[in-house]
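Input for the complex:
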Amino acid sequence: MAAPETSTAAVPTLYTNNTLRNAFGAVLSFFIILLIGVLAFSIRLFSVIKYESVIHEFDPYFNYRVTQFLTKKGIYDFWNWFDDRTWYPLGRVIGGTVYPGLTLTAGTIWWLLNSLNIPLSVETVCVFTAPIFSAFASWATYLLTKEVKGAGAGLTAAALLAMVPSYISRSVAGSYDNEAVAIFALIFTFYLYIKTLNTGSLFYATLNSIAYFYMVCSWGGYTFIINLIPMHVLLCIVTGRYSSRLYIAYAPLVVLGTLLAALVPVVGFNAVMTSEHFASFLVFIIIHVVAFVYYIKGTLSPKMFNVAVTLVVSVGLAVCCAVIAVLIALVASSPTKGWSGRSLSLLDPTYASKYIPIIASVSEHQPPTWPSYFMDINVLAFLVPAGIIACFLPLTDASSFVVLYIATSVYFSGVMVRLMLVLAPAACITSGIALSEAFDVLTRSIKFQLPGVSSDAEVDAGETSSVTTEARNDEVKAEKPEETSKDRPSKKSKKKEREHVEKPSSKSKVKTKSEKKRLLALPLEASVVSLLLLIMLGAFYVVHCVWAAAEAYSAPSIVLTSRSRDGLHVFDDFREAYSWLSHNTDVDDKVASWWDYGYQTTAMANRTVIVDNNTWNNTHIATVGTAMSSPEKAAWEIFHSLDVKYVLVVFGGLIGYPSDDINKFLWMVRIGGGVFPHIKEPDYLRDGQYRIDSQATPTMLNCLMYKLSYYRFVETDGKAYDRVRRTEIGKKYFKLSHFDEVFTTHHWMVRIYKLKPPKNRIRGKTKRSKSKTGSTSSSKRSGTEKKNPWH
Amino acid sequence: MRSLSFFFVFLLSLFPILCFSFNPESPTDRRVLVLLDDFSLKSSHSIFFNSLKSRGLNLDFKLSDDPSLSLQRYGQYLYDALIIFSPSTEKFGGSLDLAAVIDFVDSGHDLILAADSTASDLIKNIATECGVDFDEDSSAMVIDHKSYAISGTEGEHTLIVSDDFIQSDAILGETKIEAPVLFKGIAHSVNAANSLVLKVLSASPSAYSANPESKLLSPPLLTGSAISLVSVVQARNNARIMITGSLDLFSNRLLRTAVQKSGSQDKYDKSGNELFVTEISKWVFHERGHLKAVNLRHLRVGETDEPAMYRIKDDLKFSVEIYEWSGKSWEPYVADDVQVQFYMMSPYVLKTLSTNGKGLYHASFKVPDVYGVFQFKVDYHRLGYASLSLSKQIPVRPFRHNEYERFITTAFPYYGASFTMMAGFFIFSILFLYNK
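Predicted:
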């Protein structure tokens, strides 16, 4: 927390006196930025220190596998990669369905390092990509906030972002997911947009489009940018802040950005065909109309202008109505109204749970709870409102963007936990502004009242100087485009506009500022106390962040640990199971499991899977869900028709691992039932309750998932007590007729079953007489449960 | 020392050959274990046994309660086939029991099972495991008052004649069995839904299964042509089983008897039994109807190496070789109904293969416009023949980015529009900037 403090102290000095102090401030902030980068990188290394340098969770394994392919086969093969080891038998065109940004980034880093004779493995590069990019992201935050509210706010915001838990949760070392680079790209795109808006430079506008392109490459969240920026442009136009800088910031972004976005295979024609992008085109039209109106206004006399306005408005309205009607008809004719399910669930939070169980089933698509806000952004949640107020003093184009950004991201984070990630940078920026302003006010009041310094004249001077600096700050921003665009033809009109817009506001601002400054001169004690309180707040934030990074968000989730009285337990069952698969099964064998484990199975076991975490084919997932919720025989037939050899289930009942397949099972039923109506959710519930104890329904007790999870479970403790559901299971003794248990990991977390081959003979129907006893091998073959002696 | 070790290695390398006399290259059985109730059957059924011996089979006669009875030693089967001619045995000797017999079959070995009116539960259970249900009434026999054998002296009409053979050259050979077959024994039925069991010899519609000595109180459970006299099973692993309710079917007495069907003027000097049991034993011991498919190949048209992956709309050539075992050598199998499927969850292409008469079947077709992981599948199931199920996985990919047409004729207006737009903008910029 020392960093922002010193920086805020340094910032006013920047403007006060001579160039030497300016240079000193610049060098200081440079080192602070560097340290923030180091902080951002190193706080994310807890996972490597506490566990090991491994890829985490599910999606990162897929990205890792893709990166390996890229480094092995090159970019063209990656682009055209048809993967036949997943979504069997449909396969998946990886090159055309994956956001390539992350993979290309890591691949490039690996290639660079290798060509410099630094032989790092692909895995190492992948593990450390996220921490590296979070350092970049904090630097981008610095740049963005600096554009909005000056260097002090920038440094504070960067420091906050470097350790905000929400972002850490997605970017610890090993968390090799799209978001790792996408957050950097998001912030950097916003920075370049604000930069263009402040300078009006076409150079930055072009850079902005390229940054946007990188964002499109990296993450589906780019639609947030292409909707937020038009919203801001519209806001500026509506509030009468239209300027040629706004035009330059926006028009090239839409044209170049859309062209570039269409180059990414996964986006392609979506860039012009789906409703997520329509807002940008609409605003593109509007900004041209507005620009044209301003141009006409400049050339015509006021009287003529009024005539023209009435003429154009009447004609224009008619045309607009017609166009909008056509547009609405077009959009309405498509079944999803042109919106993809994920986007619709953003606008209508209940949409997904109503219509798309596959989206609702993902925990990160659930709405967050209040504690998760405190967990993920901590004290920032309280600082954000202050930051928003600070953004209104004074409201510039840039600060209005920040306000809009925080407002929309708060809404979206309320819809989906995952989008808390988009909220985090906004919260950091606003809180950075708030903290910086608060430090500014408090330190100034202290300085104002310190005995040695507090002669009236000096105070006045200091005050006016600070006021003028801020005014100048505004002025500088306004001046810059002037300087850079000297040789431009539209100079005259520009000047006019600037006078129109900037002059009155800046004048009034200066007035209100000086009044406020007097009010803000707080008593010495109060300012010292509140300064200390603020520092404590910051310290609390740091402590929380470090704790979150070390304890909450560093678990790789493929290796689990638990602490008990007799020490630390490590559960490495997942890798045990995957390596069993890779060593003991045939290369072309197909493994069926719930889709969560698809990416890991292909990446770690190198076996073909039926469904995986890229949930592109609902029917296929529903087929697996149906198989899991069917009785053994029906399930065997489904799996056999898909050439499945092995079925993998995750079971946490023995050690109390809560996110196992039994807990996910209702989603399998729902997703399966959505496509195959003979699977009905009420059949699995007793009086609306999901239970696996003796009260469970027969359908539940006979479904494949129950049987595969609890087969032989009673042999562990004699009672078959499930530690996750905290109950004894309903049916303890049963045998499997169509599946053979082939492998169960040490802690029973992963159980692998093999499908029995089709029966070699078909038995006759005569009942066996009593002389038939004990021949277990043939009773297994019998295939009917009625003959089961265990019943 | 060296030569000794060499000899040892030689023996070891020979070991598998010694152990597996049943191998895919010559599927005919060589070593047969015959289980008998008592050794008198050896002479009373000698014609049948001698015909087997004359075909090169090595018969090993054992009493069914021989305590040294064992089908396998050290995990290797000692026999290729089993003939159970001991209907009254309640319990086999040695390590042999129901499960052992069933495992023997499940590991691809053949079985001939003959029961009679003294059939024990054990024998009936073996039959049941194979999908054949003997009449539950243990005293019942097949009685037919219309098509009984006239030569039979007793008036119970339990020695019946039947000529209702299955129509399959693969099972019964190409020589037509002229004389009817004499049968005396118990009835069994097969489940019509069971596709693995075939009724080779059915009873006439007037037959029924009942106790010939007692009065018929209730209608018999098994009647008419639902009664099967001889059934064969071909398991999914192509193990072959023959089950009949008459041990006498194989006996010298019935093989040599002249036969005349009641109500028929045709009189034969010899019953059809000899030909029937010989031919059916040839089928059971894989001397006929055993197919193999090898060299499943596929090629892109114009190439010589088998590709690892096809592209949609590729033209490909597919070929497979199918041979039939004649008892001594592999002969080309000729048929016009062998089909290949190009299969992904359902067949996208189903094509009949044409043959060159020398065992090679081939077809060429275009890969459908669907990508995914396909399979070449040859599923050939014909009555009496060993079933062939081959599949070979092959992925089909979509076009690469540079395999699409570079310029499309119909799009020329759009190309024109773009370039004129660019030129127009360029001219406009020049005019706007410098024309003041």
